[in-house]
Amino acid sequence: MSTLTTAAVVESAGTGFALSDVELDDPRPDEVLVRLVAAGLCHTDLGVAVGALPFPLPGVLGHEGAGVVEAVGSAVSSVAPGDQVLLSFTSCGNCANCRDGHPAYCATWLSANLLGGRRADGTATITRNVQELGGHFFGQSSFARRALADARSVVKVGADAPLDLLAPLGCGVQTGAGAVWNILKPRPGATLLVAGAGAVGLSAVMAARLSPATTVIAVDRVPARLKLAEELGATHTVDTTETDLAEAVANLTGGRGVDGVVETTGAIPLLRAGIDALAARGTAVIVGAPAFGAEVAVDVNHMLAGRTVTGLTLGDSETQTLIPVLVDLVTSGRLPIDRLIRHYLFEDIQQAVEDVVSGEAIKPVLTF
Ligand SMILES: NC(=O)c1ccc[n+]([C@@H]2O[C@H](COP(=O)([O-])OP(=O)(O)OC[C@H]3O[C@@H](n4cnc5c(N)ncnc54)[C@H](O)[C@@H]3O)[C@@H](O)[C@H]2O)c1
Ligand SMILES: [Zn+2]
Ligand SMILES: [Zn+2]
Fold this sequence. Notes:
The chain is α/β, with parallel strands linked by helices and 368 residues long. It has helices spanning 43-49, 96-99, 109-115, 163-166, 172-184, 199-209, 223-232, 245-252, 268-276, 300-303, 319-331, 349-358, and strands at residues 3-10, 17-24, 31-40, 59-60, 65-72, 84-87, 126-128, 131-133, 146-150, 154-157, 191-195, 215-220, 236-239, 258-263, 278-286, 308-311, 341-345, 363-367. Helix 5 (172-184) packs across helix 6 (199-209). One zinc ion (ZN) is lined by residues 91-92, 94-95, 97-98, 106-108. One zinc ion binds at residues 42, 44, 63, 171-172.
């Protein structure tokens, strides 16, 4: 017997989100039925909705869900009905990278989270009048009043955890924080550059403030975002519409360069400028996602001084470990992500999309 619910369905590329009645399959042994309380909106949802990624449409997106467990499959012991949970990406749990504690690099990652739209065995989790919809997005498809989530997407939080504040931990926040804490691991006195002061970049700035890095340079082209970056921990800002980044970094670092770069704009010239700005032994982390097939050139001799360029998915986070830590930091006020969030009713999802596209909202969170 399936569960009836209302989802924000993307009918085809570019049509936007429209509420529609759908049916969820019954939980399989390793699945959890969740009643959504809140869900963050991320650029990856928008990219799929406009057809930039080949996810099967019509479909249901959403990958920063937060809610209450209503039912669990027979093999689920990590949560029980009534538990409050955050939803994040899924993974197989069995491949070499999963066993090694790096589920964001799971062998099944792309199909299970981003492109497949179905369970691993090819069955649909969401249907509408017998028509199969694309679902299982990041193991959740949480733009719906109820979601059928993979147990590995589900992280239990406390009964009093403020879900409408915590929803974005599942993607944007853990990505920015993980770039700093899991990859750059700044040494005392390190200098970091964060390109892009959006949801991911500002999360990196806040994470850097909780590290021994002493100089944090935020880069954007929107003055209001740079001002917010300063309030959240950036020691310096660079507006690329009026200042040359290379010159600014040279001035701020006495010509030495920066120890770490978190590139979240997806703009290739900024990525190149970030790599060029690295000090010897510095690392540039690629987080922003440009169009498929995009390439960047590097000066090979510049790289010889121990410089590293690395890509990053979801902060390389082990969600069951990192998300509870983030919950603790947010609820104790040390990671003030409320400064990034604007709330919208679920039925106003299209307004949230417009506001994030225009840059007016940094991190929309839908409430149900
Ligand atoms: N790798 C991952 O796992 C992962 C996870 C989440 C998001 N992402 C990607 O990270 C990127 C950032 O996400 P977000 O939610 O922070 O987006 P966002 O739009 O909120 O932030 C991007 C910021 O970059 C700035 N920017 C863009 N081009 C610029 C330029 N040429 N010069 C200066 N500033 C510029 C924008 O003004 C904006 O403030 C997106 O591409 C998203 O798809 C990747
Ligand atoms: Zn995301
Ligand atoms: Zn795996």
